[in-house]
Amino acid sequence: MTRYNPREAEPKWQAAWAEAGVDAAADPTQSDREKYYVLEMFPYPSGRIHVGHSRNYTMGDVVARYKRAKGFDVLHPMGWDAFGLPAENAARERGVHPRDWTLENIRVMRGQLQRLGLAIDWTREIATCEPDYYKHQQAIFLKLFERGLVVRKKAKVNWDPVDQTVLANEQVVDGRGWRSGAIVVQRELDQWFFKITDYADELLEGIETLDRWPDKVRLMQKNWIGKSRGARILFPFVEKDDARRFGCEGIEVFTTRPDTLFGASFLALAPDHAVTNALGAEDPSVESFQDYCRRTGVSEEEIEKAPKRGLDLGVKVRHPFDKDWELPVWTANFVLSTYGTGAIFGSPAGDQRDLDFARKYDLPVTPVVLPPNADPKTHKITDEAYTGDGTLYNSRFLDGLTTAEGIDRAIAKLEEVGLGEGATTYRLRDWLVSRQRYWGCPIPIIHCDNCGVVPVQEELLPVRLPDDVRFDKPGNPLDRHDGWRHVDCPECGAPARRETDTLDTFVCSSWYFLRFTSPWREDIPFDPEVAKAWMPVDQYVGGIEHAILHLLYARFFTRALRDAGLIDLPSGEPFAGLFTQGMVTHRTYRSDDGRWLGPNEVEERDGQTVEIATNKTVSVGQLEKMSKSKKNVVDLDAFIEDFGADAARWFVLSDSPPERDVEYTAEGVDGVWRFIQRVWALCDGHPQGAPSPSADVPACDGADLELRRTVHRAVKDVSDAIEGFRFNSAVASIHELVNEIRRHKGEGDAAIAARSEALGLMARLISPFMPHLAESCWERIGGEGLVATQGWPDYDPALITADSVTLPVQVNGKRRGEIVVARGAPSDAVEATALAEAGVARSLEGLTVRKVIVVPDRIVNIVAG
RNA sequence: GCGGGCGUGGCGGAAUUGGUAGACGCAAGGGACUUAAAAUCCCUCGGCCGCAAGGUCAUGCCGGUUCGAUCCCGGCCGCCCGCACCA
Q1: Which range in A446-450, A611-615, A825-829 is most confidently predicted, on average pLDDT?
Q2: If both were cysteines, with which of A141, A177, A289, A577 could A539 make a disulfide (CB 3.0 to 4.6 Å apart)?
Q3: Is the CB of A548 under 7 A from strand B?
Q4: From the Cβ of A270, is strand B under 7 Å away?
């Protein structure tokens, strides 16, 4: 009897799989088998992989191996989301070039993933920072530019004046740059945008077709797009002069409730609305109000708590339905310039914010919507607005209409008088893709004083990132790299400048799944025929943190590429199935002086947790997602060294449902180790010369037949669990199977044959989860070839349905006994057996049976009183 | 504030169309083997009553529908997530 040694077995089987080429994907255009594309969100090469990261890849791998065994042509590739800020931070902090840092991380992480035994087709590996990837991205950019989907417009950015760089929102902490600590200012820059809003409706409608996505993610996308229907209304200026002053005829507002127009009491503009800005330039009090709003605009918490504030701008507009009705125009801190038209009309009775504002500044409140069953004479609005539906009143020609009718009627009237129209707005904004950074895909554009914005000719792609850059000064090194920046204009030949912005890394991840289908094509981003055959991704696996942006951008990209004729994908949907997995969490430890401590820096002593180095007690903190910053990570290599890849794979799938977090515990790992050894011991103890696990089992009965039933039942349960992404249930079923096999004794031929079959099926059921152990078991019990090349086992339906069933018998809903009857036995016979059962008869003493419910093959319930 | 989700033993969780609540794992306790330990194996393991057979309560709380509710409906409490002054 030997112990199972993963350190020997795992490299051996990984070499055997490589030798047999089992992980290479077939060419789907040359195959008549069904395809299955399974993909995990590709990682950012941040350094090393820990056990937490491995959960996502293991889930994808289980699916890949299962589908492969089921006879699908499986595509299961891996790559690297290799551009991004951490590489530049490393460059600044440690003087290492972003490319070297990134490539080294990739090398390390690739090795880690390979040691995990993932069934990945490594010949398709891509890294987005390589010119042979971003070259195609630049070509795609130009294609979208040609089609008018790329535009340049001004946008506000967070500017760090010390680092001279643009900051992402999460890099602004309490109004200050996260690195420099300088106060961040808002700056307007010319920026590149993708016109994702052109696809707002299609992206919204497409959500309905994504029936294999979590409802939660679909809802989040829906809210993000935020479509709302209503009307755009022009309130003309009272003073003719104002039209000239502000360069427009009046104030345009967006509303979802044009039916409440007769309740209007004021207009409110965003503090940075064009008209507010114009007034701010001449009126110091307006300017100081704008300053106030800008200041509170920095911290979210303050915005939350900020009371409604406004300022009367002294401008007057006319009501669209009554030219003698004048309304004051205010500016208010709760109006967003980025939504709708940046202006609202306040109808205080029907909107809480408007009401708060009106009460504060003593503006009129006219109720116009009468709630159902309310009396118009007594209905009053005090501190609470009525936002529901009802009947319109105090509203002239709208009186008596319902809310819905009123909206239609008001819009019709607005159109009639030429002061408005039905309109739809979206919360979704265009996708800002400019980043004032070095380590990203260069935007293939040249700025010429004569010709303006000129695209780089396609044959000159890629526009390569220069390697000779320095990070010793703040700002974007590309801006200072004159040799790279200065080029001749492709159109007129005059001296011109390259665009120094690089693309948001979300662009890279918006089409990588297409590149995987034919990564060797140098001339085009991907082969349209091959991409058509593989797409869409059948199962995408990743974190919930990408529920909105990444998935929405990718959905936009596939539509844009489809419309540009690059891919034949009528639905435009890249991911047919999506699964969002939970994290691996681990306890956190902190020393007295606030240092985070790793799990191997502390130990338990007499019920206390102490730091090994100092012998001081440490405080045991919350469960947190494994992360480097909290030091609660368990490195994958160290884990594999101790317990093997299979243990890591099995652990992260055990116990918790895949969509929920799972807690890493040393005890749990010990349990996995014991289980692996038990499985191995079962196989190792199997007699040499026993029948092959694939041989037919002779007729058997008793315990042997029971074993066969159990095993075939397990085949069904595990298959169903994998199909349903319930890996924790699959793990439980395999545990039960192993327990049953262990209980089975008997040395006769039938017993040994039944055990051969059981162990063989066990190995195959285990193989998607613990592929190395499965191969070792399979080899030991005399299986032919590799488990990796076996088909998925079928169960014998006759074996999973027993001839007799055990039925619980309830009396008045309480279980009082159980009976064994033939499967499908007639109800009256079942009833008679149930009534005769001793325990049942006892509890029926003194009662009259009123009714007997027999649910065939499930339960009997006797109603008695 | 709006939207969504979740509450089951000491713990993670099963129970997939309303039909035996607590599968499986972890922890804990007891025992076997051993000079001892480790490893391994066996047994117990929701609460209460009971020597036991068995009874009884129990899936956050209150109520409803049903022969029967962890599951469906209404109300409440708690926790988590997303968006956040969206006109």
Answers
A1: A446-450
A2: A577
A3: yes
A4: yes
Identity at A56, one-letter amino acid code: N
Quick check: A215 CB within 7 A of strand B? yes
Q: Which of A737, A792, A794 is nearest to A762 (CA)?
A: A737
Residue pair A846/A830 in contact (Cβ under 8 Å)? The answer is no
Nucleotide nearest to A813 (CA to C1'): B68
Phi, psi at residue A597, to the nearest 5°?
A: -120, 145
Nearest to A722 by CA among A668, A789, A786, A793: A793
Q: What is the pLDDT of residues A382-433, one digit of tens each?
A: 777 888 888 999 999 999 999 989 999 999 999 999 999 999 999 888 898 9
CA dihedral of A734, A739, A742, A743, whole degrees rounded to 10? -140
Encoded amino acid at A568, one letter? D
ipTM: 0.94
The DSSP 8-state label assigned to residue A467 in this structure reads S
What is the reported pTM? 0.93
Q: Mark the nucleotides of strand B covered by protein, meaning any atom under 7 Å from a CB.
A: 3-5, 12-16, 19-21, 23-27, 39-42, 54-57, 67-69, 81-87
pLDDT of residue A299: 43
Locate all alpha helices (DSSP H) within A85-186, ordered by sequence: 85-94, 98-115, 131-146
Q: Check whether residue A393 has its CB closer than 7 Å to nucleic acid strand B.
A: no
User: Is the CB of A4 within 7 Å of strand B?
Assistant: no
The answer to whether A741 CB is within 7 Å of strand B is: no
Place of tokens 């044009």: A258
Residue A1 near residue A38, CB atoms below 8 Å: no
Q: How far is CA A441 from CA A85, A132, A135, A141, A724, in A?
A: 12, 11, 9, 10, 39
**Phi (first) and psi of residue A488, to 5 degrees:** -90, 145
Q: How far apart, in whole angstroms, are the C-alpha atoms of residue A865 and residue A863?
A: 7
Give me the pLDDT at residue A301, please. 43
Give the DSSP H/E element, type plus range, for residue A762: helix A749-766
Contact A620, A587 (CB under 8 A): yes
Looking at this protein, which amino acid is placed at residue A365?
Answer: V
Structure tokens at A629: 């910053």
The per-residue DSSP string of A254-311 comes to: EES-GGGGGG--EEEE-TTSHHHHHHHHH-HHHHHHHHHHHHHTS-HHHHHHPPP-EE
- Which nucleotide is the nearest neighbour of A853, by CA and C1'? B67
A49 neighbors A113 (Cβ within 8 angstroms): yes
The mean pLDDT value for A448-457 works out to: 95
Spacing of A663 CA from B61 C1' in Å: 29
- Dihedral sign, Cα of residue A558, residue A562, residue A565, residue A566: positive
pLDDT of residue A175: 67
**Residue A428 token pair:** 């979704």
Structure-token pair, residue A434: 């400019």
CA-closest candidate to residue A37, choices A529, A717, A532, A552: A532
Of A137, A182, A257, whose CA–CA distance to A512 is shortest? A137
Nearest to A765 by CA among A47, A280, A62, A231: A62
Closest-approach nucleotide to residue A257, Cα vs C1'? B87
φ, ψ of residue A101 to 5 degrees: the values are -60, -45
CA A364 from chain centre, in angstroms, equals: 46
CB within 8 Å of A276: residues ≥ 6 apart: A269, A270, A286, A290, A313, A331
Cβ within 8 Å of residue A40, ≥6 positions away: A56, A57, A59, A60, A78, A540, A541, A542
- b (16+ CB within 10 A) / e for A453-475: ebbbeeeebbbebeeebebeeee
